[in-house]
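This protein record is not my work; I was only asked to verify it. The record follows directly below this note.
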Amino acid sequence: MTEALYLTDAYRRGCDGAIVAVHDGGVVLDATVFYPDGGGQPGDTGSLTAADGSVWKVTAVTKSPGGIVHQVEPTSPPELQTRVRAEIDWARRYQHMRYHTCLHLLSGAVFRKFGAGITGGQIYEDRARTDFSMPEFNRSVAEELIAEVNRVVVEDHPIAVRFLPRAEAEKDPSLVRVAADLMPDVTEVRLIDIVGYDVQADGGTHVRSTREVGAVRLDRIENKGAKNKRLYLVLGSPATLPALAT
């Protein structure tokens, strides 16, 4: 299995690891900073570098029963037990972190206002979308939600990661916003705590404070069914945010 370092430190950009398994065009490390595709967040890209200077480009990262698989190019992977330096494409990852945290803020706003949960979502480097189970939704409601998200962004809430036994987490329905079939089969639930605003289960990577998200803008909304509503958003630079009150 792979020690998933991103679960406790999303800002770690690299690590040393050994190849413990080789799959078709991919390798499993004993430890990695690479996030695997899942939960609407794309897998990281980057590189693996051996001590002799050999470099493999990591093009995709996925989970498998045996660990986290790094698909590499060239497709002739390093041999078993080769030690490599794993480095992620940080600029791309950081964008995913900002968007993922933004979707949690939006989920928190929707849950507070409507008690509604998440039915799906997808994060990209330059945009994101999320789906909610809501009977009524329009542009005016969406703009109100985005205004609430921006309010929390500006307030600069710290964001922490903590873990809770699954049995304990299941006692609080507010912690699990995804549909039941989207909840992973785990014994310990990882929580993302936007301190003072929202706490929910999640396995993705996030920024350390809400101001890092930057200004949030509504792109468009779509009706995907009788109850399923889709909202698209884009982020601006944190530098455009108003100054914190003193």
Observations:
- The chain has a mean pLDDT of 91.
- The chain is about 20% helix and 35% strand.
- The CA atoms of residues 13 and 90 lie 6 Å apart.
